[in-house]
Amino acid sequence: MATQVQVVRSVLLLARHRTGDRAAFGELVALWERPLLYYLRRLLATEEDAWDALQETWVRAFREQHRLRDERSLPAWLYTIARRVASRARERTRPAEPLPGDEAPGALPASEPAPDLSGFDALDVHRALATLSLAHREALTLHFLEGFSIAEIGAITGAAEGTVKSRLFHARHALRVRLEGEGS
Amino acid sequence: MNDMHLRDALLAAEPSSPELESRYRERLRDLTERGLTWPLRVAHGIGLLIALGTTIRCVFVFTQVAGHVAPVALAALGLAFVFSAGWVVATSVALVSGADRVFGNSAVRAWLIVGFAFLLAALMLWAGITAGDAAQGVRFMFFGLTFWCATGLPFLVFQLVSEMQARLRTDMLRLELAFAERVAARGEQS
Fold first, then answer.
1. Which of B32, B174, B176 is the closest to A26 by Cβ?
2. Span A117-127, mean pLDDT?
3. B105: contact with A, CB 8 A cutoff
């Protein structure tokens, strides 16, 4: 999950916003817009689409804030809205390639540990992410950016926990292969 | 590389177009102005009708009683007129522009109502005390007290309680944030 500092700061900003503090919503936007844009950029074809989707995400978050029951889940809630907006945008621009839903999870090797990605350069990781499949890219982006749990990623993407677990494992594996290929 | 560093490095690696970003910021600026939803429009519409009715009623009463009542009662009537006419203007502006600038802030709204109710009740009490006719004086005082108890007092209590709750909550969250920042700073040092 997102760090405790980010979560508490977000809850505080939301509380200030709800008491009529106009600056608080702007501060909340500033806190989350970069990671949300990064996520949307991984889901949508162009930067323009990502900025438009980000704007739409804030419009919806602003309008639907009363639906947020647990304020501490604000980061995951924002990502859920962003994904829904991105999904609609993809339906318009790329109807043949929708965002991945819930499919049967791929087999997980029982004994093999999750591939270690530490030690690689972040810029290389950033570039290699672009070469992964959409489902793998999305799961890893959510994991890298906010450290969301399997359950949280499942809730954001609408996939079962088994599917998320499998995607994360295979995505890490594919990313490591790409990074090692770049290094050699 | 730890997770926060990876996060920051990934975010820094993402290029962004200044033109697209400034267009996004421009559009976002409008968002912080509270847009009127349909339930809010209906609520404002009802408020507008009540305020309009009160304004007309004030003018009507003034034409009937001017010269027969004490100046303080006329002042109360004038205050009610100014308040309800101001309400008509403010809600009309909000409905036409589609954004709630003044009444969007519940604290501003509540304190306006409390202030108005207090002044009106005080003027009515004063009018009651200084009235030459005892029966009319009692009626004025009764009206002032009833108005205050029915309008000003509930808003005042509600506003004080909700402000206290909000302040307590934000103070607790600030404390929690300071603690979380301290723990995070310690984690980075170790």
1. B32
2. 84
3. yes
List B100's β-bridge partners, or say none. Answer: B34
Helix B153-189 × helix A4-18 angle, to 10°: 160
State how far the Cα of A169 lies from the Cα of A69, in Å rounded to an integer: 31
Q: Do A15 and B105 touch (CB under 8 A)?
A: no
Q: How many whole angstroms separate alpha carbon A180 and alpha carbon A172?
A: 12
- Predicted confidence at residue A55, as pLDDT, reads 94
How many CA within 13 A on the CB side of residue B149? 6
State whether B32 and A37 contact (CB < 8 Å): no
- ipTM of this complex: 0.84
Chain A residue with CA closest to B8: the answer is: A145
The fraction of chain A above a pLDDT of 70, given in percent, is: 90
**Residue numbers of A between 119 and 148 with CB closer than 8 Å to B:** 119-120, 122-123, 125-126, 144-147
User: For residue A117, which amino acid is it?
Assistant: L
Complete DSSP assignment for A16-85: HHHTT-HHHHHHHHHHHHHHHHHHHHHHSSSHHHHHHHHHHHHHHHHHTGGG---GGGHHHHHHHHHHHH
Check CB contact under 8 Å for B31 and A145.
no
Q: What does the pLDDT read at residue A88?
A: 93
Q: What's the pLDDT at B1?
A: 43
Which amino acid makes up residue A38? Y
Burial class (CB in 10 A: 0-12, 13-18, 19+), B182: exposed
Q: Which residue reads 């600038």 in tokens?
A: B101
- pTM beyond 0.80, yes or no: no
